[in-house]
Write a structure and sequence with these properties.
alpha+beta; Dna Ligase, domain 1; Rossmann fold; 3 domains; D-amino Acid Aminotransferase, Chain A, domain 1; 16 strands; globular; five-stranded antiparallel β-sheet; four-stranded parallel β-sheet; 287 residues
Length: 287
């Protein structure tokens, strides 16, 4: 089996140890995994045929591709070439747009904070909920494009700091600086961590947060399983806020999720499990 691991160059430089680990785990399971820079990859339709080019050279299609960029249309194109993508274009499209994610997960009656949808162009003069509140850009990730708004002056200033159009407004009546991330591969729950940041309202590990193993109770496991059953995930992280009463509230699904945080708090080899899942999925597709 041959696969591509697609990164943009900046992200590849930042995640070189993860990439080397991924390629090594694939090799141990007889899979040839090659790092492909997104900037070198060109897709197109030539003479009515889908074609792929690397540095302007035509290439043979791989068996699969692991997409580590936020670009759902790339998954769509690769799937049109009959290349199995991880994650799929459906998962990537929904999970990289927070509004679409909330609308989809709400079908399952999963608890979440009061959430309103608007746009930068139509942001109202006064918010629909009381302060403090959180404004999120729908395409943001890793805690970026998320703003805690404590008063009307900050609300008015938010107009100038928003960089994209689709916006979510959410209640901040939760345990700020805390969340729970659940790691999922396919239909399997792998593990969960509690992230805590004492210096920021966002709990993200890259923003200075700490993490410890989190044990889901029976009702939390059932809630997570509802989400798992609804989607056809590859590898994702499902994030939950924590209410003042200690209840988990759905927050978002991370499509391009890393494994560093789980490795720091457990002995779980997430990439070994992920490669095993990829291999089994491809073998099943051949039957």
């Amino acid at each position: 089996m041959k696969g591509w691991l697609i990164y943009d160059k900046n992200s590849a430089n930042e995640n070189i140890s993860y990439i080397e680990w991924f390629i090594d785990e694939a090799k141990q399971q007889s899979i040839q995994l090659e790092l492909i820079y997104r900037e070198s990859l060109t897709t197109g339709i030539v003479d009515g045929k889908h074609q792929l080019f690397i540095d302007q050279n035509t290439v043979t299609f791989p068996d699969f591709a692991v997409i580590r960029t936020i670009e759902p249309i790339l998954q769509v194109f690769l799937e049109a070439c009959h290349i199995h993508t991880f994650n799929s274009s459906t998962v990537s499209t929904i999970c990289n747009h927070k509004i679409l994610t909330h609308m989809e997960v709400n079908k399952l009656r999963i608890p979440m904070v009061p959430t309103y949808f608007t746009s930068k162009k139509t942001l109202p003069e006064y918010p629909p909920i009381t302060y403090p509140l959180v404004i999120k850009e729908a395409n943001g990730r890793s805690g970026k494009q998320v703003h805690l708004i404590k008063n009307h002056k900050e609300w008015k200033n938010a107009f100038s700091v928003l960089s994209t159009n689709d916006i979510m407004i959410q209640s901040a009546n939760v345990e700020l600086g805390k969340d729970v991330r659940v790691f999922v591969i396919g239909k399997e729950f792998i593990g969960a961590v509690l992230r805590v940041n004492k210096n920021d309202f966002r709990a993200n590990f890259k923003l200075g947060g700490d993490a410890v193993t989190y044990i889901l109770n029976a009702s939390e496991k059932a809630m997570v399983q509802k989400i798992i059953n609804h989607f056809n995930f590859g590898l994702v992280g499902i994030d939950f806020l924590i209410s003042k009463q200690g209840e988990l509230l759905f927050n978002e699904i991370e499509d391009v999720v890393g494994s560093r945080i789980l490795s720091e708090v457990s002995d779980v080899n997430l990439l070994e499990k992920y490669v095993t899942y990829i291999k089994s999925t491809l073998l099943e597709a051949e039957l």
